[in-house]
Design a protein that fits this description.
Layout lengths: L1 H13 L15 E3 L3 E3 L7 E2 L5 E9 L2 E8 L10 E4 L6 E2 L4 E4 L5 E4 L6 E4 L10 E4 L5 E4 L5 E4 L7 E2 L5 E2 L4 E4 L7 E8 L5 E6 L4 E5 L19 E4 L4 E4 L4 E3 L9 E5 L5 E7 L4 E7 L15 E6 L3 E6 L3 E3 L9 E3 L10 E8 L1 E3 L7 E2 L3 H10 L5 E7 L4 E7 L5 E3 L6 E7 H6 L19 E2 L6 H16 L4 H28 L2 E2 L2 H7 L6 E5 L2 E7 L5 E7 L8 H13 L8 E7 L2 E7 L6 H4 L7 H20 L15 E3 L5 E3 L15 H8 L19 H16 L15 H14 L5 H8 L10 H14 L10 H10 L4
Parallel strand pairs: 26-35, 38-42
Antiparallel strand pairs: 1-11, 2-8, 3-4, 4-5, 5-6, 5-7, 8-9, 9-10, 11-12, 12-13, 14-23, 15-20, 16-17, 17-18, 18-19, 20-21, 21-22, 23-24, 24-25, 26-27, 28-29, 30-36, 30-37, 31-35, 32-34, 33-34, 33-36, 39-40, 40-41, 41-43, 42-43, 44-45
Helix pairs in contact: 9-11, 9-15, 11-14, 12-13
Bound molecules: 2-acetamido-2-deoxy-beta-D-glucopyranose (NAG) (9 copies).
Length: 804
């Protein structure tokens, strides 16, 4: 095979092809010494032998061109996909610019002004017959006659890696500025000094690493710092392998050469696969599920929140206004007068569930709220502080901040932020232009007189120093050094508590879990390749301990963690919280929060669950699923929505459980479809499962959701007595018939609802709301997947109250 390839390569080098210059109407396959490609000549391109890739001048704006490589065939929307650029930051003129291969073997890009050298490979060919060619793999390379590769575009990627193109220690992927501006942006994928593949934001003002989770040490994030090799590639089968131990398969793994790994302008790294029939790129992997953890997306003094319906959203802090109305990355500025010399009165606005990552001027464990406020008042540069409870140690932690960046608000974050504002601002509160949007940090704070007995000069000096450090020496190298210095110094003393509070991810020992679960004696659930036990952890937290079956045990700890780290990133009040994991020997265990009231299945006929609560369960479950479908990738499908997987806390607040584990179960060598089939539960499975030809999409969960809702309303099991092998259960058909009869006008309007709902359930119901819920549920359980709404539409319909 190799020999054959070599032979073919040799032949193509030796035998002169008829298309060596642009004189022919067909594009050339190679550029010879002394010839050039010109921006003026239309169709002056190099094309790969299989015609998949084209190299030439690509228009990036008005009279602005970049020498680029792109996929020849446009997408369905007419756009071309550029995979490489020579001069992204210095486009050339639309006339008289050219790329020439000099007689000496140097490749040079010149602007209209011929003296201006825009880009060059600085190569020299001693054989006198080098050629520039575009490979079928998308590699543009300059090869001398003796076969030596003098230069190749694979060695200097811009924002995209193609299959088999290695990312090495000498290269990095740099995002483009925006969707339409191809010049270098702020996000980079690179190997750091410890040989770990990371994502960094290098904004105009600050720099920060945000992937893998900077709260975790490399090995806790499933990465290895051993070995000096630094290389990462994705192969033709969609397998990504990095020398630091990051492995993953794209969700469509298999032979599909049209893939690309792109550092996107929004700060996420994604793998795209081309859907050849529809000619669109589909995301088949992404580094970050919770987009708010990407730094720099919402600028200073603003916070980011995830919204199932609207995606990522930036909001100014109270009493702040947006600096640039069109671009959130500029952040927000105070709309109040800042008292530089402090007239002594500062108050604090309470903002629950807010976090600002990094830029702490201090760390104060075991501090009361008042002491923390005092501290922040004392530091002139203090903009506010993070205050949270560390359950494990039983103390409150205080983090005064000198910069408010990487703001994040999420109901699942159990900590608060206190924003420092001049008391006069709060009391007058006249500025109507202030953007408070959805924030509710109101509740007028009390004003306390500040004691002014401190050495301001000294404090100011040290903070200034810190600021200078971040601003001026914010280079990559520095950050890495500071970061690891900080980590190794402080990891034992303080980061642990913060880390667990922030990520909710803890590594448990098997012996401890065995003890906690009384030798795995109290079984509370089973199925989906796992058994769940109840246990009490050493800190008295009650946990659900889920033991995965042997299937996954041949997998290393790092690999296991890399996979479950996705679960750790899923954070939603309607998804069950994961606290930690254990991977020892053949044991693979996940530790979740324990839900007092068991599952919806246990409570279908319980009096605890009145109609109001049932409606809440419907909305909450829909929100949780909407988050899974729309904020994460399509492949974070649940695939097994059923009453047993909707858990209820002490207030019967619903949380979806058992999601995101499908990948573990795909390890026993069976085909993809096979395994997914094993995941569903009969009665709740969408018709698509039974037709191999139909794609599995998020609509399978929508169907199951509809069935569960109907079961909750009617109290009838979906399976009923229908054993005819059909997928559509008795219950759906029964409800649909009742609704149809009502629509035809027999019987009163509220009558049909009365006939459908479970008469044994306590409480009154609002017949309008119930009607909506039934209609939405029926729509979800449509046989045709395209007729079903998305989960976020379901949320909307239930909350807005229109049933269509
Ligand atoms: C050209 O592509 C083939 C596979 O298509 C690959 O094996 C070969 O190494 C490539 N050559 C260069 C110089 O990139
Ligand atoms: C792209 O962004 C850069 C940096 O902000 C800017 O200098 C350049 O003019 C922009 N290019 C286009 C075509 O908008
Ligand atoms: C990726 O898929 C291959 C089979 O195609 C399998 O051997 C490997 O374990 C998978 N790796 C991961 C990380 O899922
Ligand atoms: C806001 O940002 C955009 C794009 O970066 C820029 O074109 C515009 O001039 C800015 N507006 C203001 C008021 O700074
Ligand atoms: C953010 O707010 C602080 C005061 O709280 C202010 O000093 C700073 O300049 C603001 N940031 C920006 C980008 O305006
Ligand atoms: C926290 O501080 C209080 C009072 O200062 C002290 O009694 C307590 O032992 C401290 N707790 C810890 C865990 O240090
Ligand atoms: C959140 O913190 C409060 C104390 O401030 C505590 O009572 C509560 O149990 C915590 N909730 C979670 C989910 O950690
Ligand atoms: C905002 O806070 C005020 C006062 O604390 C309260 O009355 C109001 O209900 C809150 N609004 C929301 C949407 O939580
Ligand atoms: C304010 O800070 C200075 C210097 O760090 C310290 O000496 C002083 O005790 C602090 N004052 C208060 C009230 O905390």
């Amino acid at each position: 095979m190799d020999l054959l390839l070599h032979f073919l390569l040799l032949v193509s080098v030796i035998i002169p092809t008829p298309f060596t210059t642009s004189s022919s109407s067909s594009p050339p396959y190679a550029l010879k010494l002394g010839s050039s490609l010109s921006v003026d000549t239309k169709d002056d391109f190099l094309i790969s032998p299989d015609r998949v890739f084209t190299a030439g001048f690509y228009s990036v704006g008005d009279n602005a061109f970049c020498f680029s490589i792109w996929f020849t065939k446009p997408l369905s929307n007419g756009h071309l996909t550029v995979v490489w650029m020579a001069n992204r930051d210095a486009p050339v003129n639309g006339a008289r610019s050219k790329l020439s291969l000099s007689k000496t073997g140097n490749l040079v890009l010149q602007d209209a002004d011929q003296d201006l050298l825009i880009w060059t490979t600085r190569t020299r060919d001693l054989t006198g017959s080098a050629q520039l060619k575009l490979n079928n793999s998308g590699n543009l390379y300059l090869q001398s006659r003796d076969g030596q590769i003098l230069w190749q575009s694979f060695g200097s990627p811009t924002d995209t890696l193609l299959p088999n193109q290695p990312l090495t220690k000498d290269a990095m992927l740099v995002s483009s500025r925006s969707r339409t501006n191809y010049s270098s942006g702020f996000y980079k994928l690179f190997f750091d000094n410890d040989n770990v593949l990371r994502l960094v934001y290098t904004g105009p003002k600050v720099t920060g690493i945000y992937w893998p989770n900077p709260e975790l040490r490399a090995w806790d994030a499933g990465r290895s710092t051993y070995g000096s090799e630094r290389t990462a590639t994705i192969d033709l089968f969609g397998r990504f392998i990095s020398s630091d131990g990051l492995f993953f398969n794209t969700s469509d793994n298999g032979d599909q050469p049209m893939r690309r790994v792109t550092m996107d302008f929004d700060g996420n790294v994604r793998v795209y696969s081309l859907d050849a029939s529809r000619r669109i790129w589909e995301v088949t992997w992404q580094a970050i599920a919770q987009t708010c953890t990407i730094h720099g997306s919402c600028g200073e003094n603003s916070t980011c929140s995830n919204e199932p319906t609207y995606g990522r959203k930036c909001t100014c802090l109270p009493y702040h206004k947006m600096i640039n109305q069109t671009d959130w990355s500029y952040g927000c500025e105070p709309a109040f007068q800042q008292s530089l010399h402090g007239n002594g009165e500062d108050s604090f606005l309470y903002c629950p569930h807010f976090d600002f990552y990094g830029y702490d001027s201090k760390y104060l464990p075991n501090t009361t709220l008042n002491a923390c406020k005092k501290e922040c008042r004392n530091i002139s540069n203090c903009k506010g502080f993070q205050y949270k409870y560390d359950k494990k140690q039983g103390i409150f932690l205080c983090y005064p901040k000198f910069l408010l960046l990487n703001g994040f608000s999420s109901v699942s974050f159990n900590g608060s932020f206190y924003l420092k504002v001049p008391a006069s601002t709060v009391s007058s509160n006249t500025n109507k232009a202030i953007q408070e949007l959805n924030l509710n940090c109101s509740g007028h704070p009390t004003t306390i007189q500040l004691e002014r007995v401190y050495d301001r000069k000294k404090e100011k000096g040290s903070i200034k120093y810190l600021l200078l450090f971040t601003y001026v020496f914010g280079s990559l190298e520095m950050i890495c050094i500071i970061y690891f210095f900080y980590k190794t110094r402080n990891s034992v003393t303080n980061s642990q508590g913060y880390l667990q509070a922030a990520t909710g991810f803890e590594r448990f020992r098997y012996a401890d879990l065995r003890k906690a679960s009384k030798n795995f004696s109290i079984e509370i659930g089973r199925g989906g390749g796992a058994v769940v036990y109840k246990g009490v952890l050493s800190d008295n937290r009650v946990a659900a301990i889920k033991r995965l079956k042997e299937a996954s045990s041949n997998q290393g700890e790092a690999e296991f963690l890399a996979e479950i780290s996705t679960l750790g990133k899923l954070n939603h009040m309607n998804l069950i919280d994961i606290w930690g994991y254990c991977a020892e020997g053949k044991h693979r265990i996940l530790v979740y929060e324990y839900m007092e009231n068991g599952s919806l299945a246990d409570n279908l006929h319980s009096s605890k669950l009145d109609w109001d609560k049932r409606f809440e369960v419907a909305v909450g479950t829909a929100k949780g699923l909407a988050y899974l479908h729309e904020e994460c990738l399509e492949w974070v499908l649940h695939c097994d929505v059923k009453p047993h997987n909707i858990l209820l806390d002490q207030d019967c607040f619903p949380k979806v459980a058992d999601f995101g584990l499908s990948k573990f179960l795909d390890r026993d060598g069976r085909g993809n479809l096979e395994f997914i089939k094993a995941r569903g539960t009969r009665g709740y499975m969408a018709p698509e499962w039974f037709f191999v030809s139909q794609p599995i999409t998020s609509k399978v969960d929508v169907y199951s959701y509809g069935v569960v809702m109907l079961e909750m309303i009617t109290g009838r099991s979906p399976k009923g007595s229908d054993q005819s092998g059909g997928y559509e259960g008795m219950t759906i058909r029964w409800v649909r018939e009742k609704v149809a009869v009502a629509a035809e006008g027999y019987g009163g309007k509220s009558n049909w609802i009365e006939e459908i709902v479970d008469s044994t359930v306590n409480g009154e119901y609002d017949s309008i709301r119930m009607g909506i819920l039934i209609k939405v549920a029926l729509q979800c359980a449509e046989e045709n997947k395209d007729a079903r709404p998305t989960m976020s539409q379901v949320v909307d319909m239930l909350l807005r109250g229109d049933g269509h």
